[in-house]
Write a structure and sequence with these properties.
Blueprint lengths: L1 E7 L3 E8 L4 E9 L3 E10 L5 E7 L2 H12 L13 E8 L10 E2 L2 H9 L8 H14 L5 E5 L9 H4 L6 H6 L8 H15 L7 E7 L3 E7 L2 E5 L22 H9 L3 H10 L2 H6 L5 H9 L3 H24 L5 E5 H6 L1 H9 L10 H5 L6 E2 L8 E4 L4 H14 L2
Subunit structure: Homodimer.
InterPro entries: Ac/propionate_kinase, Aliphatic_acid_kin_short-chain, Aliphatic_acid_kinase_CS, ATPase_NBD
Organism: Marinicrinis lubricantis
Length: 400
Amino acid sequence: MKILVINAGSSSLKYQLYNMEQESMLAKGRVERIGFESSILVHESMGKQEITEVSEILDHNVAIKKVLDMLIHPEHGILSSIDEINAVGHRVVHGGESFSSSVLVDAEVRQEIRKLFDLAPLHNPPAMMGINAVDANLPNVPQTAVFDTAFHQTMPPESYLYPIPKVLYTKHKIRRYGFHGTSHYYVSQKAAEYLGKPLEDLKMITCHIGNGGSLTAVLNGHSFDTSMGMTPLEGLMMGTRSGDIDPAIVPFTMAKEDLTMSEINSMLNKHSGLLAISGISSDMREIIEGVQKGDTNAKLAFDMYEYRIRKYIGSYAAAMNGFDVMVFTAGVGENASYLRKAICSNLTYFGIELDEQANEVRSSEIRRITTDQSKVTVLVVPTNEELVIARDTYELVKNK
């Protein structure tokens, strides 16, 4: 069975094609600047050279058509016909309380995703555009929706409710939802397999750290608490997001700076975090480079970033009454040994003993970076959210 995985943004679209018999990726690519005359399609079929094509792609329908044309291209493609595509799986950021697992897309699912537009105005509408675009180009192919929030639906009320008037939850569903769920699920499963232990017997903290970042307390195989909230803005300091701040800062700053709601939202999501404090970049590689060159603002940004991650780790250790395993994943978590060392070196109270040589190894494989004497096992686990989407799609379609 061949499954196409789609991650649609407002002006971009990423895709991967899988052969589920071997769980092998056949092709991958992305479309950027959708809606512009100079849109960019970057495509790579496995075993073939990457190709970049610039053309006019005015909407998601055209984007999907371009992707399908590339997949069957006689020189650059990998399929003889689009009829080889058996199903399409979509990443949908917000499933609210409606979805605790992945689902086949039907009229009812579409309606529920639309109802959630208010909770994820930047993410769910593009996902629906992706679903509609596949409809237009592959009308008879089953589609699935895989939700970032689904894994976190096991959180207990003490974790997901906010201490605000409960009517706001009952009327408007204002609560913690959490995100990066497919990644937290995948790496927790892989960590348990690597250790040869049942996931349900472990207390684990998974650290998905990229330009966006979140931590999850995984207790007995289920999400018990997670750092992102009703939106991806809450929690850790991130590349351009503020993470946790005093809520009173919002009306205070709006009044003092005469900002609109849209402007304050943009400030907190796009102009804060590492970028705001360092004045250099939102990219951790450039921050670390600045630290090593003696840039005081870069050092402050790094120290704040590391400290806030460590505070969440401590809070989740308290929430679960200890932890056995900690996992680093995503772009920064998998590659920034300098950050991992800083975090682990400040968690010796928990019995973490870093193997510095192992920590410096760069690999695409899962690996342990603590010594045999360490009371907590720390792993680096490369994430694969697209494979989770493909697997869930395969199971849903197979059993249709």
